[in-house]
Amino acid sequence: MLRRLRLGAVVSPAPQADDRQTFVDYDTDWPVRFVTIAAPLRAALPEAAVEHYGSTSVPGLGGRPIVDLQVALPPGTERESFEPILATLGYVPFIPPDMASLADDGMIVYVPADGGNAVHIAVVSAGGFHHRRQLAVRDYLRAHPQEAAAYAEVKRQAAASAGGVRERYAAAKGDFVAGLQERALRWAEQKATTEL
């Protein structure tokens, strides 16, 4: 079923981040930037859940200076119905070869059309695997500071060894991230069971 979503105001792009795979310490401005970036998305996509995820959403966790937003669309929403909205807001799809499987699996990442790399918007289906995975990792890291500290060190080392190449950075932290996602999803499932 195709859902119609209304257009909103154009968002000003966030300050441009260094395009290299750098590691920076946590910045208390990241949550403020999320709120600023999320406001026009929420206005333009009222049926969607717009949430902060990734390293910039975990207090104290350093990482790449990129604010990650997740836009969880109601199941059945067609891509053709929201892509023009994101284009109006200044975002274009970003599907490099090493991320094509995510697009095939229902997650499309959008970045500022002006070429900036300070914002990534992951569009997912509400309740789907990517939606649950990203929020589980965020919440798990918020609840487990020792895991957040270990992840920060892995990312710091990955950035140092990547030579500015995104694919090398992802590969260098890949094993840790895979394990982290497993632990986070298991934790989220257990937490949901005990809260019933």
Rounded to the nearest angstrom, the distance between the terminal CA atoms is 31 Å
Helix content: 40-55%
Query: Helix and strand succession?
Result: HEEHEHEEHHH
Residue fraction in strands = 5-15%
Strand order of the largest sheet: 1-2-5-4-3
Shape: globular
Major sheet attributes: 5 strands, mixed
How many β-strand stretches? 5
Ranges where pLDDT stays below 50 over 5 or more residues in a row are 1-20
Question: What would you say this structure looks like, in words?
Answer:
34% of the residues are buried. It contains six helices and five strands, in the order αββαβαββααα. The two termini are 31 Å apart. Mean pLDDT is 85; it is low at 1-20. It is globular, with a radius of gyration of 16 Å. Helix 4 (129-143) crosses helix 5 (145-162) and helix 4 packs across helix 6 (166-194). With 196 residues, it is α+β, with helices and mostly antiparallel strands. Strands 1-2-5-4-3 form a five-stranded mixed sheet, sandwiched between helices.
